[in-house]
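testing teh design pipeline on a random one, pls ignore if ur not involved
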C-alpha cells in the first residue's frame, strides 16, 4: 500500500519524493501599520509622541533628582530625565511612514511563502 514503519514507530509513505525545502526570506521588521490594525492610523494621527509605554517624566525626575520635572532647569538634568524616559519606551512611533515598532523588536522578520514567521 506504500506505507511502512520507520524506526520511530511512525507511519510514513514510501517512494514519495521529499518535499522541497523552502528558504525563508529575511527582511527588516516593518512594524505594525493600519493593515495590521485599523487603529494604528488613528493613533498616529492623534499623537505627536515619538514613543511611549515608559514611566512619566515626573516619576523619573523624582527618582533621579528628588524634584518635580517642572522644577528642573533646562540643563543636563532635564535632558537626563528625558533620555531615561526614551530608553524605557515599549514602542516607537514612525509618523512619516505610519508605523509603530516594538522597542523590544528583534529587528528582522522571516517570510515563508508570503507568511510572516517572526
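output:
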Amino acid at each position: 500500500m506504500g506505507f511502512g514503519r520507520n524506526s520511530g514507530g511512525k507511519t510514513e509513505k514510501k517512494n514519495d519524493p521529499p518535499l522541497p525545502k523552502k528558504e525563508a526570506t529575511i527582511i527588516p521588521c516593518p512594524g505594525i501599520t493600519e493593515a495590521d490594525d485599523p487603529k494604528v492610523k488613528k493613533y498616529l494621527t492623534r499623537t505627536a509622541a515619538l514613543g511611549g509605554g515608559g514611566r512619566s517624566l515626573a516619576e523619573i525626575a523624582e527618582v533621579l533628582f528628588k524634584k518635580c520635572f517642572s522644577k528642573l532647569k533646562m540643563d543636563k538634568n532635564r535632558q537626563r530625565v528625558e533620555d531615561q524616559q526614551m530608553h524605557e519606551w515599549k514602542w516607537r512611533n514612525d509618523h512619516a511612514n505610519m508605523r509603530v515598532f516594538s522597542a523590544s523588536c528583534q529587528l528582522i522578520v522571516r517570510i515563508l511563502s508570503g507568511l510572516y514567521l517572526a
